[in-house]
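User: Predict the full complex structure for these chains.
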Amino acid sequence: MAEQPPWRRPRRAQFPGVPAWGAPVASLPDEPLEISQLGLVTGEWAWGDADGAGVRVCLLDSGVDASHPRVGRLAQAMEVATGSAGGIEVVPTEPADKAGHGTACASVIRSMAPAASLSSVRVLTNGKYGAGKALLAGLRWAIENDFDVINLSLSTAKAQFLDELRELSDQAYFRRCVLVAAAHNLPVQSYPWPFASVISVASHDGPDPMSYYYNPSPPVDFYARGVRVPVAWPGGAEIRSTGNSFAAPHITGICALILSKHPILTPFQLKSVLYSAARNVARPEGGTRVSE
Amino acid sequence: MSVSESGQSRPSASNGRDLSQRRLLQSIVEVARSVFGAVAASVFLVDQDSGELVFEAVCGAGEDHLVGSRFPGDTGIAGWVASSGQPLLVDDVSQNPQFAPDAAKSTGYVPRSIMAAPLISNGECLGVLEVLDRGARQRGELGDVDLLGLLAAELGMAVELLSPTEKTNGSGQLDVPLLQRVAQRLPSAPEPVANTVTSLLAMVDELLSRDDPAAASA
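Assistant: Here is the predicted structure of the two-chain assembly.
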């Protein structure tokens, strides 16, 4: 049984190395980790031959219809519900989705990383936007359950949830739960997509699902395919849809591919890999990839 | 447009809306339809009790019979937008056998494309602004979606300003012609001007939400 990876262990009292100013502080041996320099990071290096196997993805949305042919089996289907004592709980539910938004996002993730394990937490209910408490509960559950990538094609504009949401996002970052969030183009403040601890995604209008672009002017980190995206529609059908809701699942899928091939990467390394493999980032020996 | 004056089961989303409120909503859907050269544009507001979406103003196809009708808030494109808070656009709707019958049943018109953006105010989605079958596409899909988002943000502010509580406390007399002018000029404004206007609208929105005691207790 493999030991827990470093990001999920309790903090050590001392670092088992040699501080710059003195003698060794601990007798613990150095642990061999694959943390060498990455070399030339290309798309081929990052996700070539990867299918997402071994990576657990969680989708916080309106639920997912697992019977849709473009989605397939779910590892877990959960929902945020009001418990018997009046508190908010995350409980198992049917893998269904009346609205269809979550199923549409799930179909994009599945098309990108077919072997990744996909789970769903329904945090959007009754067509109501801005259920901040449900979002917080679902996000906390997903982080505590150690998902590798969490897709948020949604946000809340309620400022009173800002601090707690930021705290959870930081917690996710340090536990190596990568949060991928759809950016909002509206002139309305919403969260958590502008946080530094998440990967925020807006849309480009190209047709290639694997092409994405690095954005040097934050808070949007990357532009991924978000125009006329073929997505699942209720009743087993498919529809073409445009919006950042469908750009984020492309990056979620790409993150799942990268993590399945390079499971040791932490969120800041993953973001660096995404940067290096972006289409508009030039290789060290010159030449931009934009026109490729 | 026809405005149902019958008292039976009036949608709560429509309660308390007087003529000037309806005129404002109507003027904004007319601007939206004109800006996009669309077959129809409409505003739905969320009925806070039932979660249903209620047609409040319609311009173009369906304007003679849709106002006041309602449908479940968690289905369809408007439902996607209302729940996710994200603007969306779908194409080739009429080719979709699952979609077309439902749409035809509820509106009497089967569009090729639907574009919709949320009306967000104080962190809540008040409703959805929707455009059917936009015409010339000089801006491309992303430009169109962004522009609809701008109009929806303005509409969200207008709805907020027009709410009965805001009106009776004497603060913020709404200048309808001013909002109409802004809506008409914004699409053709140079980018820096449009950005500034957008920032100002965002600041107004933030100021309103800061002064609203309801926002702190939600």
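Strands of chain B lie at 40-46, 53-60, 70-71, 88-91, 114-121, 124-132.
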